[in-house]
Amino acid sequence: SQQGEEDPQALSIQEGENATMNCSYKTSINNLQWYRQNSGRGLVHLILIRSNEREKHSGRLRVTLDTSKKSSSLLITASRAADTASYFCATDAPDSSYKLIFGSGTRLLVRP
Amino acid sequence: EAEVAQSPRYKITEKSQAVAFWCDPISGHATLYWYRQILGQGPELLVQFQDESVVDDSQLPKDRFSAERLKGVDSTLKIQPAELGDSAMYLCASSPTPYEQYFGPGTRLTVT
User: Fold this and answer.
1) Dihedrals phi, psi of B84, to nearest 5 degrees
2) What SS3 state is found at A52?
3) A81 — phi, psi (to 5°)?
4) Taking CA atoms, what residue in A is nearest to B41?
5) Which residues on chain A are in Cβ contact (under 8 Å) with B105?
């Protein structure tokens, strides 16, 4: 079963624009992570935000977490064609042995 | 840079046949995961190993799937017999800490 739901399911933007993806989840969490997956490849870890954090930055990435709304957003600024990929949020719940539950993903297309 | 290795990358098999996937995690990573990813969805955990011990196999269809990590290093996931619904990407991941998982390129299985 999938814990998270990403919104939108697909996003198409022009190079240089910002891309925002949202993730909603159902149960309380320890941490929330974002991963990127290029077509037909494995996932790459992007960023982790803990349940007691509200915002985190890494390069062109900005992640926010609102535990009261059980939601997170990933912002990619100044997008590049190489950012074209699927993006997944993943959560781990308390007492779950850090088992990750992935959302259904957002497919991002950055047009050159 | 060390990577998780998986083989084969692609496998086509007929239903009712047996199929096996192999994973070699990053050296020193005690935790190893097998995920199944159906097209258009996020990965779903099948089994988690800590060294050679199974930590979580609650989502593994044990009537047909088996996984082993005999020496606590590489791992094999087997399906016997394969069914049409098993067509998916099978991803292996390893981690040095509970938080960040490193994924291999995956094995794309097609059951005909």
Assistant:
1) -55, -35
2) coil
3) -55, -35
4) A104
5) 41-42
